[in-house]
Every structure is written in C-alpha cells, then in structure tokens.
Specification:
By secondary structure, this protein is an alpha/beta fold. It contains 4 helices and 5 strands; from the N terminus they run H-E-H-E-E-E-H-E-H.
Length: 137
Amino acid sequence: MSFQINSRWLAVWIIAVVACLQLETAHGQSQPYRNLSFAEFSRWLEQKDFLLINVHVPYQGEIPGTDMLLPYHSVKRQKDRLPAAKDTKIVVYCLTGPMGHAAAESLAQLGYTRVYHYQGGMLDWVRSGRELTVRSD
C-alpha cells in the first residue's frame, strides 16, 4: 500500500494544527510562552537583547540576526546547546508557525521562563518585503 501526501491535504493539516493550538489558548489554558506579532518582533530586533533561534527543518534560510539553528524536534535532546540561565530571553521561529510552537513548548518544559515565539515566521518576514539570509557553511 503506497501513501502520497497531497500538498492540499498537507496545507489543510497545518492549518488545523495551528487552529487547534489557538483554540486551546482561547479556552483559558495559558501558554508557557508568548507569541510575538511581526510589528513587535521587528521592534525587538532594533534593540536585540535575546537569543534568536531558527527551529525550522529543513533549512530554508533565516532571519538576519539569528544566533542559532536548532531543529524543533531536537530542542530537548540538544539542551546542552542552550543557555544555562533559565531566565534567558529566547525567541524561536520557523517558516510558518507550527514548528516554532513545538519548540517554544519544549523550551518551557525545560524550565525556560522567558520564551517567545515569532508566530509569523520566515514567511511573514518575506511577505513584509524583507529578505532571509543563507548560511554558507
């Protein structure tokens, strides 16, 4: 039996996951992290005082100023790469949102208390007319 993922169904699935995450928050369950809008994230970058982590896989570029690449599904396994101070201000992002949500959750579960998720991700960044950078290493 073969199984093919139709891009339309993949998009529907991603939208459903994001909707479920937002619905969960809307019903009074507080998230252990805070979402940032494009406007807020852009202002924060002007006075950057946080660790910026790209958690998207596969690599598709990054927002300028990114400090670290850490796959969303490896946050807990690679915790030794993270700051020892649990009150470090950390912002995560991915391409569109779901991987960033997962990474933010993992960071909170590891005890980090100042976790933020740029919910628009790289797609929102590019839509705003800004460019991504690509590492050459």
